[in-house]
Amino acid sequence: LAPTEMSSPSLKTGAYILIGVGALTMLMGFLGCLGAVNEIRCLLGLYFTCLMVILITQVAAGLVIYFQKETLKEELSRIVGNLIENYDPLNDDERNLQDAWDYVQTQIACCGWTGAKDWENNEILINKSMTMYPCSCSNSSNNFEADSGFCNLGVPVNSTATYADWPVHEQGCMDGVEKWLKDNLGVILGVCTGVAVIELLGMILSISLCKNIHSEDYTKVPKS
């Protein structure tokens, strides 16, 4: 699978934002500790600024995801479609990405993006006359085969089959992901709110500490 087929401007932007926030968080923690221990006002000011930037970035990212969700869904559909079409267990170059998709299908109990029919576009399965199916899609509790790669359907040689003959989950992963998000919406919002509250408290405490340091410095100034 060519790297260009997996590219997505929105996903790249999101990845860069997360990397930037992570780096800023590390810098913020260092500045906050150093400023609090040594009572350095400028470092506490930078700590406050970093917290504010992170909070604004998180809110902006949330708004982008909310208002661009249809665009993101279309891009994910294209990316997953290319991944399924070119899925090859022997392709070590894309092993990590393919393993991640196998994990999604196994954990969410889904198959394909919109359904198992998506796998009928896979080149290997086409060459095998659909007598194999993706193991991570299996809905059989008695299936002891690997949870990645392709499994044999167990039909006579030179036979043909369709996705309807596969012992796989009927639900597509798009519906599965949406259902998971709806079921866990309260937890997700709670975590986001908790993080925002902690950041606000950090901003308030940094301001208070800066004021205390300023007051102490003022009282130390000798009066003429």
Automatic annotation (TrEMBL):
Keywords: Disulfide bond, Membrane, Transmembrane, Transmembrane helix
Membrane-related topology note: Multi-pass membrane protein
Disulfide-bonded cysteines: 111-135
Protein name, entry field: Tetraspanin
GO cellular component: plasma membrane
Family: Belongs to the tetraspanin (TM4SF) family.
Chief place where the protein resides: membrane
Subcellular localization: Membrane
Pfam families in UniProt: Tetraspanin
Transmembrane feature ranges: 15-37, 44-67, 187-210
InterPro entries, sorted: Tetraspanin/Peripherin, Tetraspanin_animals, Tetraspanin_CS, Tetraspanin_EC2_sf
